[in-house]
Amino acid sequence: MSAPVSIYEPFRAGLPPLGSYLRSLWARRSFIAEFSRSELREQNYGSVFGQLWLVLNPLLLSGVYFLLIYIIGGHSDATRYGHLTANLFLFYLISNSLTGGVKSITAGQRLILNTAFPRVMLPISATVIALFKFAPTLLVFFVMRTVLGLHYSWQMFWAIPVILIALLMGLGMAILISCINVYFRDIASLLPYMTRSLLYLSPILYHASDVSEKIKTLEVVNPLFYLLDAWSQVMVYAKAPDLYSLAHAFIWALSIFLIGSYFFLSRERDFAVRL
Amino acid sequence: MISLSASNSQNSIHAKHGLAVSVQNVGLTYTTSIDKRPTLKARLKSLGRGKKHTRVVRALNEVNLDVHYGTVLGVIGSNGAGKSSLMRVISGIVPPSQGRIEVHGSVSTLLALGVGFNPSMTGRANVYLGGLAAGMSRAEIDAQFDAIADFSELGDAIDAPMRTYSSGMYARLAFSVAATVQPDILIVDEALSTGDAHFKEKSLNRIKELRTADRALILVSHAMATIEDVCNEVAWLHKGKLMARGNPADVIKQYREFMQVGKSAAANEDV
């Protein structure tokens, strides 16, 4: 009989066998999809517009921020509005991933205490939910940019690698923060201020080129600064992004993802005891 | 040397043939924090001194237990005996503090009903959600869906959101989903006592159907009649220790006598 043998021994901080871990994660992909879908539906449960909020939310959001920059800046042109909307939407992909991820482990207590599964599934589904929310905003943006009369070009296919980098970053952040929250619950209360700071420190309400050189060098420590700059170049100006921006974003995203995953995977067996 | 080690490994394969779960010297301790005054001031005061208000709870203490295929093992014991902890350790949810557990085969756990269910969704959607959470594939659930719906006796209510269900309906659907999973090793914790008498009997019969030679069942229950009816072996836990194990009638008799003797015997127990 060649039944699979599992051995359980006392917890030591260390990575589980990655091959079998990834296999069992892959086997649960349809659960991740179903779980994310039901969480998403629950968020709009009982509201009149239901899933339409997925489109209404980004529209209202960009409207509010447009009002803000119109009052502060005193002028508005198509590119400025396009830039604001595009970057706000991508920013929300990452920030939704963070806010969904932070409590994914602590809120999944019942699941964690009663079923054995790769725990990383929970922050992954937080990112999947953020992606589900992001997809309609992309559609809204394309309608908007056509109405605004911004031109299209083949260079816009650069959007694909930029989105992939943003997803990697969002996923890495969700994994990292969900794990931190198990040991340090206060992080959930700090998070709104962290995302708010990121919002203002990143080129969303302004252009990356508006910032002085001195501040620009400091922005190297902001994982989102060059990512959002690249996104704006591609989506608003239909230009190829600056390779430096792309590399900066990718290195940040990969580092956060690797550090977060290591931290998470080496400790996830301990989670059930900590909840 | 080489031939010796080769024959040894051969022997061990033979010895382990039919072994489903092997629990070896397993201990489990939880550290719980005790804050008499859970205030910020008290916390700040104790911060620098490295003094922690914690209490160590020994949930399991040197438990040794082998479960072979074809066995239906009942686990009994009073509240806080460590039954659920043992189940969590065997299913890999909580790592043990000492010892080692070997599990030969796929494990499915039914430790609580309705794990993974989302009350905002319909019963139908939750059959998929719960089934996927238990490790079934979508195709398997598709194939079993009618059987699950029939078993739950929910009728049209299967398409209503689960937050409109009564607790009995909720438990019935949850049990129906869980009972369709067909693992090598099934661990059931207090899940048989759901619903009314009619459904209770139905679920008991379902568990009996799952008793086959190539499967191991572990049932945790306080219902001694059920344990005696279904199981062919019983293990009795008390305060984290394995007190007895063997023939259901004998062990249950010992357990009953012990519980009636009461506090004096329980006090001796800590030795």
Automatic annotation (TrEMBL), chain A:
The keyword S-adenosyl-L-methionine does not apply. One of its GO terms (molecular function) is ABC-type transporter activity. Pfam families: ABC2_membrane (PF01061). Its main location: membrane. The keyword Transmembrane applies. GO terms for cellular component: plasma membrane. It is found in: Cell inner membrane. PROSITE patterns: ABC_TM2. The chain crosses the membrane at residues 52-72, 84-102, 122-144, 156-184, 244-265. This is Unannotated protein. The lineage of its organism: unclassified sequences, metagenomes, ecological metagenomes.
Automatic annotation (TrEMBL), chain B:
CDD domains: ABC_KpsT_Wzt. Keywords: ATP-binding, Nucleotide-binding, Transport. PROSITE patterns: ABC_TRANSPORTER_2. One of its GO terms (molecular function) is ATP hydrolysis activity. Residues 42-264 form the ABC transporter domain. GO terms for cellular component: membrane. Belongs to the ABC transporter superfamily. This is Unannotated protein.
